[in-house]
Design goal:
By secondary structure, the protein is an alpha/beta fold. 40% of the residues lie in helices and 14% in strands. Strand 5 (168-173), helix 7 and strand 6 (202-206) form a beta-alpha-beta unit.
Length: 388
């Protein structure tokens, strides 16, 4: 029997990390003990009160049924309060907040809600690969927009405006930016809102990194007029060490939230209520939680800087987020060549920048999700096996 995959999958490859993790697994089975510095999956636990809430509500007899597609009122209220406390953004918990089973699913939900064949979507290069794959799976066409170091990894909106944008329905934006760690600024944010209004484009802002090594968490919805053109995704994966718990949120204008809900309600049957109650606890944590988390990440980042200097890379010490983005040495072919050599010789996995788009070919990315001692071991291995 020969069953062909659907057309929507023909240009969508398996996620890079999915393939690479299989390779690493095979190396480990052969005794390699690979140090994985590639993936941004926090290794630290959530706050103790979050785990306690999960245990408490999981033991209740009436918390195991199907839940509503919009999340419980307590969770929506906690998300709205969180936005108000830390971003200064006021949201209606009943109509402008939609809990998600991780913000990654929200990327797909938005694309499937608004895009179809014949439509176009602007996707950053470099950028999170899921933006591209979600657009492709919707049947729409990806239109890259360039991000370059010389422009502080911000899009050139003037150059974009000169292109034919008549088929573009939405634009994926992500600041603090992954993988480069770049942040936006007020002038650019205002210009982006004006650009979206001029060209009738929905800005989809993916905002999961705003609390990591960032002194001032920001939301695009803080900008005047943003509510008319912006949907924003956020997540507890990074800010609350809850990556595997799958808790995210979509916030924005009520009409758009309802439209996305029409798609989402056909895709899942709600989030486990004890997880929702635990997420409420996470959202109620104060500034002390984020300060303590960032103290740990600052120590780790110093070790990563040391590792990258050993490799002859250059980088911006002011970048934020859960990774460090670095330019490879002059004369090196590309990030793939360097990272493959390090993996094979030192059994240390670092992400090549090229997986995030062609503009990332001259870069590599290191995750901060390992203990300082692990980074030191990686440094020692590279010194011994690569930089003899």
């Amino acid at each position: 029997m020969n069953i062909q995959v659907a057309k929507r999958l023909q240009h969508t490859e398996e996620y890079y990390f999915s393939k690479k993790l299989r390779e690493i697994d095979e190396m480990n089975k052969a005794g390699a003990s690979v140090i994985n510095l590639g993936i941004g999956s926090p290794d630290l636990p959530p706050h103790a009160s979050v785990i306690a809430a999960l245990n408490e509500y999981a033991q209740k007899p009436n918390t195991h049924a199907y839940q509503g597609y919009k999340g419980i009122p307590a969770l929506r209220a906690a998300m709205a309060n969180w936005y108000n406390r830390f971003y200064g953004v006021s949201l209606d918990a009943d109509t402008e907040v939609l809990p998600l089973i991780g913000s990654k699913e929200g990327i797909m939900h938005i694309c499937m809600t608004y895009l179809q064949e014949g439509d176009e979507a602007l996707v950053p290069n470099p950028g999170y690969p899921t933006y591209r794959s979600a657009v492709q799976l919707s049947g729409a066409t990806v239109v890259d927009y360039d991000l370059e170091e010389k422009n502080s990894w911000l899009p050139n909106l003037d150059a974009l405006s000169k292109k034919d944008l008549s088929k573009v329905k939405l634009m994926w934006v992500n600041y603090p930016h992954m993988p480069t760690g770049a942040v936006t600024n007020t002038n650019f944010a205002k210009a982006l809102i004006a650009f979206a209004k001029k060209h009738n484009i929905l800005i989809c802002h993916d905002n999961p990194y705003s609390f990591i090594l960032n002194d001032k968490p920001e939301s695009l919805l803080q900008v005047e007029g943003a509510r008319d053109v912006v949907l924003e995704l956020n997540s507890l994966s990074k800010s609350s060490n809850m990556a595997g718990w799958r808790v995210g949120m979509l916030v924005g204008k009520a009409a758009w939230i309802n439209e996305v809900l029409r798609f989402k309600s056909n895709m899942d049957s709600g989030m486990f209520q004890p997880v929702q109650m635990a997420a409420v606890k996470a959202l109620e944590l104060g500034q002390d939680w984020y300060d303590e988390l960032n103290t740990i990440y600052r120590g780790r980042r110093k070790k990563v800087f040391e590792l990258l200097e050993l490799l002859g890379c250059t980088f911006d010490t002011k970048q934020v987020g859960l990774f460090v983005w670095a330019k490879i040495p002059a004369g090196a072919k590309d990030g793939y060549t360097i990272t493959d050599e390090i993996l094979q010789k030192a059994h240390v996995f670092i992400t090549p920048g090229g997986i995030f788009g062609s503009n990332g070919n001259g870069y590599i990315r290191v995750s901060l999700c390992k203990d300082e001692a692990v980074f030191q071991e990686a440094i020692d291995r590279i010194k011994e096996k690569v930089k003899k």
